[in-house]
Amino acid sequence: MHATKVTQILATVSAIAFLAWFHHLSGRLDPMQRPRTGGFEDTMMGTPESIHHPTLLRHEHLNTDQELAPERSMTTGLLAGSPGPASNYSRVVVIPSMQEDDIRWIRKQLPEMDVSITIANNPAAPKHAPKNKGHEVMIYLTYLIDNYDRLPDIVLFMHSHRWTHHNNHLLGFDASQMIRALNNAHVVREGYVNMRCHWSPGCPEWLRTNTGQDTLGKQEESVLERCWQELFPFDPLPSFLAQPCCAQFALSKARVLSLPRSRYIFYRDWILKTPLSDYISGRIWEYSWQYLFTKDSARCPAEHVCYCDGFGVCFGGDLAYKQYWELFQKKTKYVEQLGNSTQNRPANLATGLQVVNGTDSSSALATTSHLLLRTHIANLEAELKARLQDARHRGANPRLRAQECGRPWGEGDGF
To answer: Residue 16 to residues 13, 23, 89, 412: CA-CA distances in angstroms?
Structure first.
């Protein structure tokens, strides 16, 4: 009887030991438990059919339950990097251009940058697009396809004009300033960064997916639902798409490689084959990039966070940021009043000098008001300049940047 119990105990212990060993071995062999490197096989867990046919992809690579998966960006589930102190990042600026565009500013302002310029409307150019369609989409996707195996750490997609209304106001609407100021570590952390900080136009809600009819200024809304089914056939249709305009953004290498090259080929083929016009197909993608690279149908970061962590312009928080713009609006109002008063006064009073008969009291009053407005404007301009300088100084401190943006920071972190 005693021997029988001993035998049973030994058998139980052996079984437990075997199961523990088998579980350990399975964990080591299960590909879902391997640390990923960001390569093709490590980011796709779909079937062979899904690899060769992008339309079958169900985003299996977005599994967020893996204990050993790399650091994730926000709640997207897509691969992101972990920037470190004193990291040296390689980057390229990808710029689509028309043959007639003046792009001399690029080499003059960014001589040290690696820049890839593709001519959209000249098939004879050394670097040209397969077809001039889809606005910048064709060239963006072509770059990712052609350079998938030799990407730098950061890929920055920008337009060919230096100054434009949709560039960041606090950086002088200047593309060269934006490119130089962009925080590489921020791009590595986030994976996808829209280069525009201001919400209007594009946020908080922009393209509605259930209108079924043209909206003034949003012709693409009427075909958005059909396009979504073609581009993301297995994903639920969101109620709207939103991000700051206007298709200028930065990607980390890890984020690009989170999708297979075949996916980018599929999307470029869609641009080539869709009956939609150049304008409409491009506009569809203007508000789809954030979904492709973050899985967020709406991607509208707080403006002060975008400026601070993205470009090193930190006002100290949302309240101080809003106070800056309140002062700016006040100055704008005074400028408008000054313009109106100038239009309603004799031309020779534009300098603020009283010269009409020397006795006209109404003209004297207008001149006084004119000079007072100029004083208000000059004072506000000085205050705005000082606040912006303080914001840049604060943004040069990595600890203050992290504090304003609500992310952790440790002594010695230089990012």
So the answer is: 5, 11, 50, 47
